[in-house]
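Chapter review. Work through the record for Uroporphyrinogen decarboxylase before attempting the end-of-chapter questions.
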Amino acid sequence: MWHRGMRSLGKARSALHAGPRASRRRRSPRLEGPGTRGGDRSDEGGGRGTTSPKGFPKLKNDTFLRAARGEETEHTPVWCMRQAGRYLPEFRETRAAQDFFDTCRSPKLCCELTLQPLRRFPLDAAIIFSDILVVPQALGMEVVMVPGKGPTFPEPLKEVEDLLKLRQKVDVTAELGYVFQAITLTRHSLEGKVPLIGFSGAPWTLMSYMIEGGGSTTMAKAKSWLYRHPEASHRLLRLLTDVVTDYLVGQVAAGAQALQLFESHAGHLGPEQFQEFALPYIRDIARDVKSKLKAEALSLVPMIVFAKDAHYALRDLAQAGYEVVGLDWTIQPQEARAQVGKGVTLQGNLDPCALYAPKEKIGELVKKMLENFGTQRYIANLGHGLYPDMNPEHVGAFVEAVHAHSRQINKHG
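Structure tokens for Uroporphyrinogen decarboxylase:
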């Protein structure tokens, strides 16, 4: 069923921009930690200013943000994709008997799920609990989570004419305001412990879900559009780009201190199709987000692009306007650094399955990874998300090994 009447879930955008704009001085944008206006760094830990516009607590650990900006850090920061997930018993308990997307639409539950891993592990960043498929929902598509199957679109896009069913103009605050509310609540609830990351799926990845109707091993239906309907594909990708841009800007306005763009299905495209149907929109999002942040007198926050399996595009991604390029586990650190150069920070890339190893082995793998990447201009992470059957103690061993070994390397470096 299209157009699910989600407008009641959001609040007016003005609620996220308290106070008259005219009273705020505009300054040239700079990469800063918090989602503050006019360059106010009061909650970033820099000691300047007194109170942020939203009264956010002062940031106590800015290691992740400094690494993203290429600044020197005492230890290598670490966080995990899907760190708020089913591998935690408290996550499963919180989510019990609750529809997945109903959970996503509850700011209180999203806040709780985001905070759970921070209570267990000394992570250097939190990432808001949500899902990339809230964007197709904002466009009017129905998405349901089917047990044992995953996200499913009862009425996927089949013909070019189906594009007319999508909302052509999306008020992201009306449709996705619950995400912004969750970010603001979580930013306060973190009490400045670590920065909060916002995110979105990238246009090609979202398009592939919308056409496939769910997950796929080949993405044959979505890729057929690229070959049979290139103009319609570009129309859809442009629409998604515009919505994602506004969505990410709204997340910063709500309190996100960094942003990650997930191009999770990049590996289904070859170099030529990636160059035509993915990379231009990835570039446009970085450019347009930063332009709109500047126009709205919001701080520029570090942006991360994670294009899984897109080894062939690392050089281009490094020049796409993002401060950080995320890596999956199938590329050597030295090769990745050679391709991207020294102008961006790298993030990744331990094989998630390495966390099934004994704790001692995890420590050895982390040490090797840090030696290969180096401890600076680097954010440790997995090469993809945590799996539901992983032992939380092994996640803790990974986090602690990153901190211990990076400090040791820095000490003797």
